[in-house]
Amino acid sequence: MCCGCPRTPPTLSSAACHSDDDRLLNCTGNDSDSGTGNAVTETSAGILHSCEELIPCARARALAKVVELGDDTRPAACAESPWPMIAVVTRDDHGSRRSDIMTTTAAAVATAAAGAAAWQVTTRSSDSPAAVCKMRSSATVTTTVTTVAVRLTAVLLLLMASARPATALGQLQGQYNGPYPEICPSDIYCHGELLDDIQMQQLYADSKTFVDKKLRRSEAEIIKSYRELKLRNNGRVPTRAVLTKFVEENFSDDPLVEWVPPDFVEIPTVSTYVQDQNYKNWILQLNQIWKRLARKVDEDVKVNPDRHSSIYLPNGFFIAGGRFTELYYWDSYWIIRGAILCDMKDTARGIIQNFLYLVHRFGYVPNGSRIYYLMRSQPPLLIQMAASYYTYTDDLDFIKKNIQYLEAEFNFWMTNRTIQVEKAGNTYVMGQYNTHTRGPRPESYYQDKTLAMPYSSLDDKNELYSRLKAAAETGWDFSSKHYNNFGQNTGDLSNTDPQNFIYVELNAILQANAVVLAQFFKLLGNQAKFKYYDDIGQRFQIGINALLWNEEEGIWLDYDLTTKLSRKYFYTSNFAPLWTGSYERKLRTYYGKRALDYLIVNGVINQDGTPKLICVPTSNINSTQQWDYPNCWPPLQAMVIQGLDRTNYKPAQTVAINLAKSWINTNYVGYITSGTMFEKYSALEVGTTGGGGEYTPQTGFGWTNGIVFELFRRWGHLFRST
């Protein structure tokens, strides 16, 4: 029993509707008087004892029952429930997430629609507004919400319904027709006249420079002063000189605080795995780079959050390097693993706690720790970070204390980033990168707005902006991988359309996350949760096998939702299931062999398994985008190299070693000749950085260093400098 709510869909009726657009939500509790009438702006609610269904009206795509329950308000009827309690994701009038979501719940989040005979998924969280009763004692709730949550039992039914027709599928594909909320409430950092004028005047070569600055005065005072300045100029945008002076008077640089991790050691354990003396010296120098990348957020961000684009974080962390002076989501997975191998386990735990703090505050992990990165994420690797930490520390108490936030992160993706895909009469729930917000990306404002200039309508512009943000959420910004030019991966940046594809790497990661959560709950003795997440992992595996594996090509391929076909293009992300183990173990020799054949056919290795190129290029298409040929990216090298190694197929492991040796060599040569580590490398010239994209090549570099440490930990005894 859970909260007295029915486990089966109710009989729907519109008799209680006052108009086509009304929605009713009855919440009964100790103090509730909100059970009838139209949805109102605020409703008080007592502790939940029972709940009734939201009654959808004629034009409503119905959202089902709803609720946020903290452990402190859990009804007695729910005390023995094996399922986590449920969280609501709310937004304010600007569409921004409220900061109090998922604060005390072990969040089970799944957006569902009630149908006459079956549950259907509504995956785009901003498709329909709904009245929500926030069922916490003496709480109030605003009805301008766009995502509500239902029981994990509902999403479990969805995941298990692999043979059910997807009658709602047509609502999930094609151009987005819903509202476009703001990225964040700030009229300076995320939208507004001042941001537009400064960025379009190109006051700085990099759009990110301005939005990383600190406000010297309140936002309201600065905006008032700027409007007065424009009035004195007859409403025209001031000259560059006047704008520059205005920025200097009202903004300042906002650097993070330099910090030395207290558990830093001069000679890390990983160096003992290195036999070559040149490489050993190099490893010790790379270890010193940690101190150059270590930062903490200034306490002023906590005291005066409205004057910074930085989001406060409680612990120190490592920045990626170069222009990237904040915490980034998927970069940090490899940074954390590198830190652990360099004996900084406490620091690694602190970085993970920063991400848990972000989940606690926002209900998900943003792209990075800036407010202009809200409303979009990056490849969801938080659960894998926790798994890496546990593997090296056996700190089960840490997992126990934070499992609710790991669940919350996973369920954010299950709620907001999954869709139903039908193939051969079966329906699969698959992950999809997806975000819908208005306006250009603040950190790339000039580039986005310039790209959108040929579009006539505001909706068309916002649709393009959303597609660009969804591509940024993939971590691959940008690549021909996202291009949709009548089904082909050709064209230019305006053809970017990741919402039209199901990506291999995302679904492999989600499958692996479900497996890790299942194992965590097994360790914690929660058999019901173990079974629940194990089932989800199996459902994802079925979808990966059915939609993404391509027997003809012998590899996993992205899936086109429009053509309903595999995208038969070489991308290193095609190897992601090898890296995550998202395949049947009894077939790993088969998959290892097919992967080698695929590398040979695509000109990456020779018949004898030696590399044809310096490293594995991101694609075989030179689109001028940075996530394409001839660039090689560290996380993608890890996916290919470690993926081949994990097959335990000897020829594949030999190729993994060969590729690792070549990758280590180009990193080493680059460091010896330039004194730095690059964000990406060229497949064509040893020791040189990759190019292309929206910004100049960056150095540092967090994930590059982390993966070097990983490869030396695995094969340091075999590597020899040349």
Automatic annotation (TrEMBL):
One Pfam family cited in the UniProt record for this chain: Trehalase
SUPFAM superfamilies associated with the record: Six-hairpin glycosidases (SSF48208)
Molecular function terms, GO-annotated: alpha,alpha-trehalase activity
Keyword list, A-Z: Glycosidase, Hydrolase
Top EC class, one word: hydrolase
Keyword presence, Transport: no
InterPro entries: 6-hairpin_glycosidase_sf, 6hp_glycosidase-like_sf, Glyco_hydro_37
Reaction(s) this enzyme catalyzes, per UniProt: alpha,alpha-trehalose + H2O = alpha-D-glucose + beta-D-glucose
Domain of life of the native organism: Eukaryota
UniProt keyword Disulfide bond, yes or no: no
Any GO BP: trehalose catabolic process
E.C. code: 3.2.1.28
Family according to the record: Belongs to the glycosyl hydrolase 37 family.
Record's protein name: Trehalase
Highest classification ranks of the organism: Eukaryota, Metazoa, Ecdysozoa, Arthropoda, Hexapoda
